[in-house]
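Lab notebook page, bench 4
Experiment: in silico fold of construct C2
Operator: M.H.
Input chain length: 149 residues
Purpose: comparison with the prior construct
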Amino acid sequence: MQYIDDHAIHLLFSANRWELLPDIKKLLQKSTNIIVDRYSNSGIAFSAAKPNMDLRWCQQSESGLLKPDLVIFLGIDLVEAQTRGQYERYENLEMQKVVRSNYLKLQDETCRVVDASRSMEEVGRDVCRLVQEALDNITPDSALKQLWI
């Protein structure tokens, strides 16, 4: 397998989000609700967990993308998470600790933490409640906001 620098990998994922931005805007203008799994916070948190990667540097390439109305972080004890399923390639408990720390550093008023150590039904109810609250706060004249601008 060919080596690709972690900076380049981060920029490729970021470029993919920028590439989709016009399509996302069009959908939002039609009042379409969009749910995204692993948007900017995820890309930054994981990239910055790698050696020689800086959180603020990773954040810069995402600056100006659309800011979500809601970010849900499924929080769980890392050892318990490890027993539930395998980590992705190159991940381990130490990396997950850094990723979690990065997520917490990126939290703002849109972020909500859901205790994911509970049953799927309980977690699902909390997620649905948070989504409904966010939807209830959106008005036809709600302006699109940008990340870190």
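Observations: The chain has one domain: 6-136. Helices lie at 6-29, 40-47, 55-60, 78-84, 93-106, 120-136.
Next step: discuss at group meeting.
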